[in-house]
Amino acid sequence: MTKITKISSKGSIVIPKEIRDAQGLQPGTRVAFVVYAGRINLVPVPDDPVTASHGFLRDYTPLYSGPSVRRELLDEHQDEVEAETPSIPSQESHESVRA
């Protein structure tokens, strides 16, 4: 939906009724102007952002379902630590050196 409006001499903008209704904007709704990539976006600001964001990842399905990269990195790190850690000689090897 596209509607055109003008900025008043005081800098006010009237959001057309069709857009207010479609987006659920009521009098007193706080909004943020976000400038990004040469565009001005008008974004409603929730009264409680934490509550408003609750569950927003509920329907998230990862695009990648292969082996866990995190798990692979942790396993690789553990292998490196074990390779760099000097091994403690067993009691048997000490006895053969003394003899």
Give an account of the 3D structure.
- The chain is an alpha+beta fold and 99 residues long.
- It has a domain at 14-57.
- The protein is built from four helices and two strands.
- Strand 1 (31-36) and strand 2 (39-44) form a beta hairpin.
- The protein is rod-shaped.
- The mean pLDDT is 83.
* Helical content band: 25-40%
**Which stretches are poorly predicted, pLDDT < 50 over at least 5 residues?**
none
Which sheet architecture does the biggest sheet show?
Answer: 2 strands, antiparallel
Terminal CA distance reads: 92 Å
Task: Provide the structure class.
Answer: alpha+beta
Number of helices: 4
Radius of gyration: 31 Å
Oligomer: single chain
Overall geometry? rod-shaped
User: What proportion strand?
Assistant: 5-15%
Mean pLDDT: 83
Largest sheet strand order: 1-2
Which H/E pattern describes the elements? HEEHHH
Number of strands: 2
Relevant terms:
99 residues, alpha+beta, two-stranded antiparallel ribbon, 2 strands
Task: Present the secondary structure layout.
Layout: H1 17-23, E1 31-36, E2 39-44, H2 49-53, H3 69-84, H4 91-98
Structure, briefly:
It contains four helices and two strands. The protein is an alpha+beta fold.
